[in-house]
Design goal:
- The chain is mainly α and about 160 residues long.
- α1 runs antiparallel to α2, α1 crosses α3 and α5 packs antiparallel against α6.
- The chain is rod-shaped and about 100 Å long.
- The chain starts with 6 loop residues before the first helix and ends with a helix.
- About 10% of the residues are buried.
- The mean pLDDT is about 80.
């Protein structure tokens, strides 16, 4: 791309470089192979699918060592890292949403039960007040404070007399 090759020429060049690296694979150490690959990557913008196709083509020609070359290629390392990061992020988000929903549901149920229980206790207290039961017995039966009982009694009296709350 940077040396103004056509797409076909660039692919042929990439194939030739990979063929040479496969041939030299046993003769050079990993650092030298990685250096050559990084220089080659500067002149040819690698595309993972194209490189996979080229490696398959070279395997069909009988050249071995494609896996080793892929591991040394900086672009392949980057693609692997990015793919791993993407998958990890997706899994993390899914797990986070799932955990958040579980916690939210749990908290919501807890709050709902508390509210329902409070409402039920107030209803029982109102009924006991309406029956004329004394405050001490209502406090003992419901666990409500004397102030809360007085407040409920006042609300019932206001409702009975038609006065606004």
């Amino acid at each position: 791309a940077k040396m103004r090759y056509t797409k076909k020429e660039a692919r042929e060049l990439r194939t030739a470089v990979l063929r040479m690296l496969l041939w030299l694979g046993d003769k050079l150490d990993a650092a030298k192979l990685a250096l050559i690959m990084s220089v080659a990557d500067l002149y040819y913008k690698p595309v993972s699918q194209e490189d996979e196709d080229i490696i398959r083509q070279l395997h069909a020609e009988g050249l071995q060592g494609g896996r080793k070359i892929m591991e040394l290629m900086p672009a392949w390392k980057r693609w692997g890292y990015e793919e791993g990061l993407e998958k990890g992020l997706e899994q993390g988000m899914e797990q986070g949403i799932e955990k958040g929903m579980e916690k939210g549901l749990e908290k919501g149920m807890e709050k709902g039960m508390e509210k329902g229980l409070e409402q039920g206790i107030r209803t029982v207290a109102r009924n006991l007040i309406a029956m004329g039961i004394d405050d001490a017995a209502i406090i003992k039966a419901t666990g409500l404070s004397p102030d809360k009982i007085r407040s409920l009694r006042k609300l019932l009296e206001d409702d009975a007399s038609g006065r606004p709350n």
